[in-house]
Amino acid sequence: MRDVAVVSFAQTPFVRHTNSNDAELVMEVVTAALDRAHLPRHDIGFCVSGSSDFLTGVPFSFVAALDAVGAWPPIRESHVEMDGAWALYEAWVRLQHGDIDTALIYSFGRSSLGDLQDILVQQLDPYYLAPLQPDPIGLAGIQANALLDSGRFRERDFAEVVARSRSHSQSNPNAQLRKPVQASALLDAPYLAPPLRKHDCSPISDGAAAIVLATGDRARQLSKRPAWITGIDHRIETHSLGARDLTRSPSTERAGKEAGATKSALDVAELHAPYSPQELILKEALGLDDKVSINPSGGALGANALMVAGLVRIGEAAQRILDGSANRTLGHATSGPCLQQNLVCVMESRS
Amino acid sequence: MSAEETLTAPYLLEYTYRRSCGPVIGRFLAALKEGRIEGIRTSSGRVVVPPTEYDPDTSEPLTEFVPVSTSGTIVSWSWVLTPRPRHPLSRPFAWALIRLDGADTAMLHAVDAGELSRMKTGARVKARFAAERIGHIRDLECFELEVA
Amino acid sequence: MSEIIKGMIAPVKLAYTMNAGRASSRFLRGLYAHKILGQRCTVCHKVNVPPRGVCPTCGVPTEDDVQLSETGTVTTFCVINIQFDAKARELPYACASIILDGADSTLFHLVQEAAVDQIRMGMRVRAVWGPTPLYSLESISHFRPTGEPDAPFESYKEHL
User: Fold this and answer.
1) Nearest by Cα to A232 from A95, A326, A36, A339
2) What is the ipTM, given to two decimal places?
3) CA-CA distances (angstroms) from residue C103 to A71, B116, C40?
């Protein structure tokens, strides 16, 4: 296995409505990520994007964003209709082939263009679920209620997740929701979709992110302190919601084990939890103790650009190593209703 | 309109799809049309409702259909305060995972409980079938709380 | 045993608010004002139209709007013999990839006021603005032949 490291990460500020088109968003992050890695554009070995045409409503709309990468002369390029975290996984696999030593991953999404409550119905079982049009918040509410019924957590625990997220996002200039809140005040807020309150749900965000990966010696040339990927794995559960235990995340547990998440102590874990109860489920599934700093960026409750937020979790976790504030970190990404599939990426510094 | 404002326009994306059902989903929907619900048995004896073509745990192909009750128990739920236009009900209702008697998995549907305070995990519910049925999941209009 | 339901109608209906973004909005406003705007790349100096805010060759932001000539050359074209567009058009009709004078990428549009069997590569054409200004390429009704001698193949062969 070739050693692969994150050598740079860039993200846009996340906002409710951007006036940039997809290419303009990608332009910002690709330029920044390449600058930070001191990597000229023509040196990139492989380029892969993660996005969803369902956000723009136009088939193949992701192709327009490729302009921001400069695809002439022809480049090695790929795309996944997934969160950029899965694009990063593809890049990691591609780098194992041995013929190239750098990869650029980018993801973008403008959730402001459509209605996510309708769009996300399209990912559900087309025969049994989609015709009922179950909105994603309603489904997350079912998972939240199941968690309360299990007796393992209370509504106060949900509120504390939110309060912690907001206190962290105060120091994240890219986060969308940054106002600090007290857990007890949150419990007084009205329900949005009982048992979930509005603040238990992530905001709707537009934005983009990019990461540069490099192998071995190349990584050491491009970064003083590369974030070496020591484990990366993703697992998926059945799409039959009623055949799953929604209070646990066996796919995250398995991915975490395969990626060696808790082989030794973690400083930071960025967990992609668009709903506050999900952070509790993920923390348990990964076996994280209270010594691990969870979502120092504020997490998805601070900003959640669909298709980007998972890549941002990996980027934020990597950045802590790049900037010297942590030695061992974990980035997690999720996709599908109620944490159906999960990717775990574990990174370390090396002296 | 300022020079920096971008132009926007409404856009409606519409596709008319007709999806083939196959023998497992097709049989489940045919039973719904007749006011019945069927599940499918796995090699470990678990009855999966709604039926899947393959075992969710082992991925073996499944063929043994099993009738299940049209009554069941609420496994978990959430409440819809403001129904959306395409929801099964236009008054506040619950989304629920319902384990029908005879089934080992739960199915998702709407419960017309009337009021949030009436919803409880473990409550008993009964299917309300639509008057006109065509062989579609919405032949099940929703579920109702069984009055004790 | 009951029948099997063979098929299920599964319509998809999703409502969006398209946002053209900054570069396209300037282009569309230009069309409304009967101007065709491209953008010049500061690295390769090529002029891209329609402009998207980035140079697709160099991958750098493009800010400089350039007003293009309304006259150009047909690089390649096609003749359509069936109704497939939502808009019913008189058949047959022709569309072409037109390289406007001063541009380095082509615009796709209708070529009319000529018999379809007269339309050819190298034909010189000019934009005809429609009666109603629009924020779209349809602000141009079509392109028509100018009557000038055909452009030599050398002048447009890089744009095929």
Assistant:
1) A95
2) 0.95
3) 19, 64, 9
- Residues C77-128 have pLDDT tens digits of 999 999 877 777 889 999 999 999 999 999 999 999 999 999 999 999 999 9
Closest residue, chain C, to A126 (C-alpha): C10
Alpha helices in chain A (DSSP H): 22-37, 62-65, 84-95, 116-119, 136-149, 155-169, 183-187, 216-222, 250-258, 276-286, 309-322
Say if CB A176 and CB A205 are below 8 A apart: yes
Low-confidence ranges of chain B (pLDDT < 50): 1-3
> Per DSSP, which regions of A46-91 are E strands?
46-50, 77-80
Any bridge partners for residue B38, and if so which? B67
Q: Mean pLDDT of all residues in chain A?
A: 96
H or E element: which one contains A208?
strand A206-215
CA–CA dist A171, B54 (Å, integer):
48
Report how many domains make up chain B: 1
Smallest Cβ–Cβ distance between C5 and the set B12, B14, B135 belongs to B135
Question: Amino acid identity, residue C33?
Answer: A
Q: Domain residues of chain A, as ranges?
A: 4-115+204-227, 122-201+230-348
| Predicted pLDDT of residue C159 | 87
User: How many Cα atoms within 13 Å fall on the side-chain side of residue B136?
Assistant: 17
The span from the CA of A58 to the CA of A221, in Å, is: 40
Residue B85 lies in a domain: yes
> Does a structural domain hold residue B5?
no
Distance CA(A27)–CA(A70), nearest Å, equals 10
User: Does residue A282 surpass a pLDDT of 70?
Assistant: yes
What is the pLDDT, as a whole number, of residue C85?
A: 74
CB of B7 within 8 Å of a chain C CB? The answer is yes
Count Cβ–Cβ pairs < 8 Å, chain B vs chain C. 88
Q: Which residue has the tokens 């992609």?
A: A272
CATH topology of domain A4-115+204-227: Peroxisomal Thiolase; Chain A, domain 1 (3.40.47)
- CATH classification code of A122-201+230-348: 3.40.47.10
- The predicted-structure confidence for A156-174, as pLDDT tens digits, reads as follows 999 999 999 999 999 999 9
3-state secondary structure of A113: helix
CB contact under 8 A, A67 and C54: yes
Written as one string, the DSSP assignment of A225-245 is S-EEEEEEEEEE--S-GGGS-
Q: Chain C within 8 Å of A53 (Cβ-Cβ)?
A: no
Q: Which residues span the domain enclosing B36? A: 22-145
Supply the pLDDT for residue A110. Answer: 96
Query: Which residues does chain C have within 8 Å of residue A22's beta carbon, measured at their own beta carbons?
Result: 21
Residue B4 lies in a domain: no
Does residue B8 fall inside a structural domain? Answer: no
Helices (H) and strands (E) in chain B, counts: 1, 10
Beta bridge partners of A121: none
Instruction: With H, G, I as helix, E, B as strand and everything else as coil, classify residue A283.
Output: helix
Q: How far is the C-alpha of A247 from the C-alpha of A132, rounded, in Å?
A: 23
Judged against a pLDDT cut of 90, whether residue A316 lies above it is answered with yes
Q: Is B23 exposed, middle or buried (0-12, 13-18, 19+ CB in 10 A)?
A: exposed
What is the identity of the amino acid at C40? R
- Residue B148 pLDDT: 64
Minimal-distance CA residue of chain B relative to A247: B76
* B31 at A interface, C-beta within 8 A: no
pLDDT at C14 exceeding the cut of 60: yes
